[in-house]
Amino acid sequence: MTDRMGPAKRVRQLRLVVEAEDFAEAVAFYRDVLGLPEEAAFAGDGDARVVILDAGRATLEIANPAQKRMIDEVEVGRQVAPRIRVAFEVDDAVARTAEATAAGAAEVAPPTRTPWRSLNARLEAPAGLHITLFQELGPAADRETEPGAETGQPL
Length: 155
Fold this sequence. Notes:
Blueprint: E1 2-3, E2 6-7, H1 23-33, E3 38-44, E4 48-53, H2 65-75, E5 86-89, H3 93-102, E6 106-113, E7 118-125, E8 129-136, H4 140-143
Parallel strand pairs: 5-8
Antiparallel strand pairs: 1-2, 3-4, 6-7, 7-8
């Protein structure tokens, strides 16, 4: 099935579901500090609660172990990330990192310029998430010429 924009998408949305022991702290951090708008909230029996936050465009980034190690080395200088790390694109990585740490996130590495022309900070955030706050430092077309930015290559 296709439409005017090309083949129809089989997946319409990515939702990352995170269990948070301190639900209120996690909601306050991601909604109020990072500024993810609340899309919906639901409650159920036994104090069951969920808040769905709009994080903008979602992508699923699949990296092999060598790539994961390389990103850790560039952003932090050592291996630190668990198997899953959540990255948020922001307009000002320095300011957003300061806000996040003031709100209780632990800075793992300060905003660092990467070879692929972004400014990336690494944090331990509420709900046990290892996060990257990243700011793109130029148009995508310019970043695509950086070493390691090849696309469309065979696996």
